[in-house]
Design goal:
Largest sheet of chain A: 6 strands, mixed
Shape of chain B: elongated
Number of helices of chain A: 14
Number of helices of chain B: 11
CATH topology of the largest domain in chain B: Alpha-Beta Plaits
Number of domains of chain B: 3
Radius of gyration of chain B: 28 Å
Strand content of chain B: 5-15%
Largest interface: A-B, 21 and 15 residues
CATH architecture of the largest domain in chain A: Roll
Order of helices and strands of chain B: HHHHEHHEEHEHHEEHH
CATH topology of the largest domain in chain A: Ubiquitin-like (UB roll)
Helix content of chain B: 25-40%
Largest sheet of chain B: 2 strands, antiparallel
Oligomer: heterodimer
Distance between the termini of chain A: 54 Å
Shape of chain A: globular
Chain lengths: 428, 281
């Protein structure tokens, strides 16, 4: 399924919080004319990211709208004139002879690039660790371990040279680092394309990884590539690693070499319920329903539409929501796919299968038990429950159909909210 | 022969018994821990739910805190007035006025009044649903109806019917666990005797409310004008009743265009003879 650009016709909605950190501040007002690539939300603070308009037209409102996560968030609504007039020339290659490291970081920040793997951590923050010389590996994450999703595979096949150039740009920031492109073995064409692109390049290699979920998790990828386990409390930078999704690296290349900010990204529309599954280069802010209709609509009534893949994706409450930077897939499942969720939940058997599959080495059974007893302190301090990456493996394997990952996601959010509240109270 | 064995055994056991007895008496004196008699008495009066609603680890901890003077004698929300009086008698202080409270769900948006949307297959937990932004109606404030409150209720006082939770005031002990659990903060503890309450939590403007629920508070302010004691205020497009000032005349409930101010039949019948202002029926 090759990548295909998709230009929406309806109105586009840009949530001001498409990343981890503080929401951006709107810099446009109602009735302002905007162009594709224009800045509409400015990063507010260090851990925040710019929001870029992806079409040309007129701002019709800056108001609270429902976003893909189902929450009401401040959004910029743009009436699309169908022209997609770019704000600047994004086709001509810039002169990079005098490019400094500062220029690269500034370009990344201005382009509003965030981690496109799903978490949406602002990339300019990630690329500026305390000690750049200590970074030994820059890992391009092309594992794409999530079932169903194939858009990064396509991206690597078609844009291999661009991704390699993006990786070279990142390597300029880290003089002691080696670039490793990690790809799961189930994508032989992508591996071949990337290997061809890196041939002759210094400090760069492609690593074929075992096809095993969740291979693309940051922690697991580092474990495999560095060849050493490390405590869950440590950040990748502490291990001398920077991990970026291949989509993010492509966006960096576009931003630095062509000055194009991040307003398009790759996305897979898939699932048994969809008539014509496809990979798109989609514009941010595109309505989910419009995108699904572009794929021929539903072949049969979907039971669930997930944002993301079947393992980590979350169900949408409504289709009238916009695609955001971090949406890398729309999976439309029919009944079989959600059968698991409808099965009866029985008591924990103590079989320990969840423990064997947890990629982080946690004890999901005991964690769920601590949650049931309301012992959040044990959950956090003794069982390291906050380190759960919500990969879904424990829920998938559980013979008693216990909703483990769902519980941990909730409790993590609750504990983080408590911490934030305590911090806010302390600051006063 | 047999007689001797019996005699020796009896003797040995008697001697051992006496020795152990002395040992116990000695240990009892030596390692004696002073326990305030009042603590035991207070502990006996407390309900023994160990629900933790008082803020202490359980009834034992609460009893110790009361005796130390760290907790008020009327600190047990479950026991309410009668228990407070008994504890006050033990402690020799005044119980103070404590009114029994009950939990109350501030939402009336059952399936009848709201449009149900989508099919939900997933965790039966309001907190998870709220976190994932899952809604069953268009209302962002109303009851989700997955019954997280019912699951934490130690007295099984909460039932979910027609998509909204309802508290049985006869069973409710006002422990407050449901209040803490509800992700939409719909449940509050209200004085049991005050039956005029607002059954809505929607803080949106009138037209928006009308779109999502046919019985939501539209913030029309009619109740504030009708109230003879000015007990009702409308803030953020939502009516609030000051229970201290409310005289339960029921005028607001009678005229509320959205029918969200309650005046249960029970109260109307009970208080109609006393209060002239009560509505008929």
């Amino acid at each position: 399924m090759p990548l295909r650009p998709f230009n929406p016709s309806g109105e586009l909605v840009f949530p001001l919080s498409q990343h981890i950190g503080k929401p951006a501040k709107a810099v446009v007002k109602k009735n302002d004319p905007v162009l594709a690539g224009q800045l509409i939300g400015e990063a507010d603070g260090f851990v925040s990211a710019n929001v870029i308009c992806s079409c040309s037209g007129k701002v019709t409102a800056v108001e609270k709208r429902r976003t893909i996560s189902g929450q009401l968030q401040e959004c910029v609504v743009v009436e699309n004139d169908g022209q997609f007039t770019p704000a600047a020339d994004y086709e001509t290659r810039r002169d990079l002879t005098n490019l400094t490291n500062r220029d690269i970081l500034d370009a990344v920040k201005a382009a509003g690039i965030v981690g496109l793997g799903g978490a949406g951590f602002p990339t300019h923050v990630k690329l500026a660790p305390k000690n750049p010389d200590s970074i030994r590996y820059v890992i391009a994450n092309g594992a794409e371990c999530e079932p169903y999703l194939t858009c990064n595979d396509q991206l690597m096949r078609t844009k291999a040279a661009e991704i390699v150039e993006g990786l070279e740009l990142i390597l300029r920031l880290f003089p002691n680092a080696e670039g490793v492109i990690g790809i799961e073995k189930n994508k032989p064409q992508a591996i071949a394309a990337m290997e061809q692109a890196v041939s002759g390049k210094e400090r760069m290699s492609v690593r074929a990884l075992e096809t095993k979920y969740p291979q693309g998790g940051e922690h697991n990828l580092i474990k495999v590539i560095v060849g050493a386990d490390y405590p869950v409390k440590m950040l990748p930078a502490d291990m001398g690693c920077i991990v970026d999704n291949v989509g993010t690296i492509y966006a960096i290349q576009r931003a630095v070499c062509y000055g194009e900010p991040l307003f398009t990204h790759v996305l897979t529309v898939t699932g048994e319920a969809i008539a014509k599954p496809q990979n798109f280069i989609v514009r941010d802010g595109t309505n989910v329903r419009e995108l699904l209709e572009e794929c021929g609509g539903f072949r049969e009534d979907p039971k669930k539409v997930l944002a993301g893949g079947p393992m980590m994706g979350f169900a949408l409450g409504s289709l009238e929501v916009p695609v955001v930077k971090t949406t890398n897939g729309l999976t439309c499942l029919v009944e079989d796919g959600v059968e698991l969720a409808q099965k009866r939940v029985t008591h924990c058997l103590g079989c320990g299968r969840c423990t064997t599959v947890c990629p982080t080495g946690l004890l999901p059974g005991l964690m769920a038990d601590a949650v049931r007893k309301g012992d959040y302190e044990r959950y956090e301090k003794k069982l390291y429950g906050l380190e759960c990456v919500a990969c879904g493996s424990c829920t998938y394997i559980c013979p008693a159909n216990r909703p483990l990952t769902e519980t941990f996601k909730r409790v993590k959010a609750e504990i983080m909210a408590q911490k934030r509240a305590a911090q806010a109270g302390g600051n006063k | 022969m047999n007689g001797n064995i019996i005699l020796i055994t009896t003797l040995v056991i008697t001697v051992v018994g006496i020795l152990v007895g002395f040992g116990l008496v000695f240990a009892g004196k030596k390692f004696h821990v002073d326990v305030d008699e009042r603590e035991t008495a207070v502990r006996e009066v407390l309900p023994g739910n160990n629900c933790g609603a008082c803020g202490f680890a359980g009834c034992d901890a609460m009893a110790a805190a009361i005796v130390k003077g760290e907790a008020p004698v009327n600190g047990c929300p479950v026991g309410g007035g009668p228990v407070a009086e008994k504890i006050a008698a033990i402690m020799g202080t005044d119980a103070g006025a404590i009114e029994k409270k009950v939990a109350f769900v501030r939402c009336k948006g059952s399936c009848e009044f709201t449009k149900n949307q989508g099919n939900y297959v997933g965790l039966e937990d309001c907190r998870s649903a709220q976190m994932n932004g899952i809604r069953f109606t268009d209302c962002d404030y109303g009851c989700l109806g997955l019954g997280s409150c019912a699951k934490v209720c130690p007295e099984n006082a909460i039932t979910v019917k027609d998509g909204i939770a309802a508290v049985d005031p006869r069973k409710c002990v006002a422990c407050g666990l449901c209040v803490k659990t509800c992700p939409r903060n719909l449940i509050e503890l209200v004085p049991e005797s005050k039956l005029v309450r607002v059954r809505c939590s929607n803080r949106d403007k009138g037209p928006t409310v009308k779109k999502v629920c046919s019985t939501g508070c539209i913030g029309c302010m009619l109740c504030t004008r009708l109230c003879p004691t000015k007990a009702i205020t409308v803030t953020n497009n939502l009516a609030h009743i000051d229970y201290e000032a409310c005289i339960q005349c029921g005028k607001c409930a009678e005229k509320c265009p959205a029918h969200i101010i309650t005046l249960p039949l029970r109260s109307a019948k009970a208080e109609a003879p006393e209060t002239q202002a009560a509505p008929n029926g």
